[in-house]
Write the C-alpha cells for this entry.
Amino acid sequence: MRKILNKKEVAEVLNLLEKDYPDAGCELKHTTAFELLVATILSAQCTDVRVNIVTEEMFKTYNKPEDFVNLGIKNIEPLIKTCGLYKTKAKNIYLASKQLVNDYDSKVPSTIEELLSLPGVGQKTANVVASTAFGVPAIAVDTHVFRLANRIGLVNEKNVKNTELSLEKKIDKDRWIKAHHLLIFHGRRVCKAQNPDCENCSINHYCKYYKEKFNEKGNI
C-alpha cells in the first residue's frame, strides 16, 4: 500500500490542478457576503447548480437579513423548497438573519468564530464564507474535498474535522483558499464519487487510489 503524499508532493498535485483549473473558485453565485451565506446554507446536500437557480430569482427581491426576518420561516420555505431540507434551511436562514440584524447591524461577520455563532452555520459554511467573502485563510471540507483528499492520499483521515486539520498541515497557508476550490473542481469534473475518470486524470501518477486499484490489475 502506497504511503500518503508528503508536503512537497501535495504542492505538486496542487500545481497540476491549478493548470487544469486556473479559474477555480466558488461556484455559488452571489454579490454580497450575506447572499453567499444564504447560498452556502442552501447548498447542504444540494448541488450548486440547483442553489443558483433558486437564488437567482430569490435574491432579486430578498437579499438582506431584514428581508428574511420580515418574511418569516413559513414564507421562506416555498422560496427554497427545491433545494431539499427546506424546512430546516428556512429556519436557519431566518434565525441567522435575525441574529445578524440584532447583533451585527445586519452585516455578516468576517471571522470564522463569529460565523460559527450563527444558527445553522457549521464549520464548512463558516470556512466558505470567511475565505470567499473576506479572504480569511481556510479550507472548507465538503464531500468533494473529503473524498479527494483521502482518495488521492493527501491525507488519511476518517472524518471531516481531522481531514481539515491534516490538510492545513500539508498545504501552505497562502494556498488554503485556492486548494479547496481546486479539489472541488476536480471532484466535480474528473474524480467523481462513482466511476472516477482515472485514465484522464492529470494527477493519477500521484494518486494512492489509482496506484492501488489499477496497478494490481497490471493496467499501469
Summary: The CA atoms of residues 68 and 94 lie 6 Å apart. The two ends are 15 Å apart (CA to CA). The chain has two domains: 7-24+140-215, 33-107.
